[in-house]
Amino acid sequence: LAAAGVASATYYETSGWRGIVETERGSPPSAPFRSLPGMAFPVYHVLADVCELRGADLVALEQSDDEAVQGCAVRHGDTLTVLLANTTPKSLRVVLRGLEGAAEVRLLDETTAPDALLDPLVFRADVPARGATAGLSIDLLPYATVRVDAS
Predict the structure, then answer these.
(1) What is the pLDDT of residues 57-113, one digit of tens each?
(2) 147 has which bridge partners?
(3) Beta bridge partners of 80
(4) Hey, which bits of 29-78 come out as E strands?
(5) Residue 9: in which H helix or E strand, if any?
(6) What is the structure's pLDDT at 80?
(7) 96 partner at 20 to 30 Å CA-CA among 103, 126, 140, 148?
(8) Cβ atoms < 10 Å from Cβ of 138
(9) Could you give the CA distance from residue 61 to residue 137 in angstroms, rounded to a whole number?
(10) Could you tell me which CATH number the domain at 57-150 has?
């Protein structure tokens, strides 16, 4: 959407199993998946990342497999942020090239989901893993998302 020049988007529902957070009652038995009262859905974190990056400059992102991993890259100040999502039911390894300096990496997958979904503000406030950016390799579990901030 950003590459196409979209200036804004509207997300239809904010709460309930079609929203970004569950209602205080939780999901009804007929809902397509189980959820807990008040929990955040994974899209909460994707939208929070996008909102934090508003006004940043879009950077070209070259991908070797456009079907399996979707993403975008933006530059804000001295930081390059890459957002990626594994859109498949299988684990994938992603190698990021062209990054400089150190990187902070925040993964949202089945191993981090309990913290991310039950206490999203604490999850987002936690210090992400730090490491070198040269040939940064990230293993993405099925349907995982990752945010990489390199500076």
Answers:
(1) 999 988 876 679 999 999 999 999 999 999 999 999 999 888 888 899 999 999 999
(2) 83, 106
(3) 75, 150
(4) 57-59, 69-76
(5) none
(6) 94
(7) 126
(8) 20
(9) 16
(10) 2.60.40.1180
Tokens standing for 142? 């099925």
Residue spans of the domains in the chain: they are 57-150
The first and second tokens of residue 61, run together, are 């992102």
Q: Tell how far CA 96 is from the center of its chain.
A: 16
pLDDT digits (tens, 9 = 90+) for 6-51: 777 887 788 987 889 999 988 888 878 888 999 999 999 999 999 9
Token digits of residue 112: 């981090």
Tokens of 53: 């990056």
Element (H, E) at 122: helix 120-125
Which residues does 36 contact at the CB level (< 8 Å), separation at least 6? 22, 26, 117, 118
Mean pLDDT estimate for the chain: 89
pLDDT reported for residue 62: 84
